[in-house]
Specification:
Layout lengths: L2 H4 L1 E2 L11 H7 L1 E2 L1 H14 L7 E6 L5 E7 L1
Parallel strand pairs: 1-2
Antiparallel strand pairs: 3-4
């Protein structure tokens, strides 16, 4: 089973937890920042250039979500 199949998307943050690629893979829980950071770490490891973009997500009905990260 691949790492991505073991990971559960968590929409709420715990203010005490440090979020990074290592803890994301170890705990199996994360949110958009974790997915983006982990993807960057993996692609940079194999020599591909990558970076994350932070912004505001707007849903198709016009509602805005606080923030979101993409790679």
């Amino acid at each position: 089973q691949t790492a991505i199949n073991k990971i559960k998307y968590e929409g709420k943050l715990d203010p005490v937890v440090v979020y990074d690629a290592y803890s994301f893979l170890k705990s199996g829980k994360g949110y958009c920042d974790d997915y983006s950071a982990t993807f960057c770490v993996m692609t940079r490891y194999i020599g591909l250039s990558s970076y994350t973009i932070e912004g505001i997500l707007t849903r198709t009905n016009g509602d805005k979500v606080d923030g979101h990260n993409w790679t």
